[in-house]
Design goal:
It comes from Ketogulonicigenium robustum. This is Gamma-glutamyl kinase. This protein is an alpha/beta fold. Helices cover 39% and strands 9% of the residues. It has one domain: P-loop containing nucleotide triphosphate hydrolases (Rossmann fold). A five-stranded mixed β-sheet has the order 3-1-2-4-5, sandwiched between helices. The longest helix has 12 residues.
Length: 197
């Protein structure tokens, strides 16, 4: 999470949406950088509103807007699957080795998924518990030029994004039946991406 005090902007760090690259590029420009632990770095919107926002307001910061980047849901899950397939995780409960992408997504949809499929939901960075959009600015991961243009204008700085935290290449094809299950079970994931336009 990055807080830009003068610009009254908070960038929420949705995992697997390029926010680590944005952090690398923009951390020196930010007034507050929350990196560790990952539960703070990747704080969802409601937790931000409960904890960080009051702190900023108590320090005299009003009218902060939030920025969220979301990724097409199947692509987002594919990135998680591939990231957890890397050699460094073999033998770890988070490893997806020996698990098909279909099985990974099916496990992800369970109320208590296995460790390797416990990846959260992008919608929690966009909507409140009532399903109302609360993120001020919403961008698609797939449209980096639009995001960079917005940030360059808002922060009055040139941005060169490094490539970091990249998932390994691996074919991931989701069967139509499992994709239908995903769409039925997680409509807000697709709604968030649609709203990001």
């Amino acid at each position: 999470m990055l807080v830009f005090w003068q610009e009254r902007l908070v960038m929420l760090a949705v995992p697997k949406t390029g926010t680590t690259s944005l952090e690398e590029a923009l951390a020196p420009r930010a007034g507050l950088v929350l990196r560790h632990p990952t539960s703070i770095k990747h704080m969802v919107l409601q937790r931000y509103q409960r904890t960080i926002r009051p702190m900023l307001e108590n320090a005299g910061g009003t009218d902060f807007e939030t920025l969220t980047v979301v990724r097409e849901p199947v692509s987002w899950l594919s990135s998680w699957y591939r990231y957890r397939h890397r050699d460094a995780l073999v033998g770890h409960p988070n490893s997806t080795r020996g698990v098909s992408f279909d099985y990974f997504v099916t496990e992800y949809l369970k109320p208590k998924p296995a460790a390797y499929a416990s990846v959260g939901q992008q919608a929690r960075y966009v909507f409140n518990s009532a399903g109302e959009r609360k993120a001020t600015h919403l961008f698609r991961y797939e449209n980096q030029p639009r995001l960079v243009k917005f940030l360059e204008k808002r922060l009055r700085t040139k941005i060169d994004l490094p490539r970091v935290n990249v998932s390994p290449e691996l074919p991931t094809i989701l069967s139509p039946d499992v994709e239908a299950e995903l769409r039925a079970a997680r409509p807000l994931e697709f709604a968030a991406w649609d709203l990001a336009g």
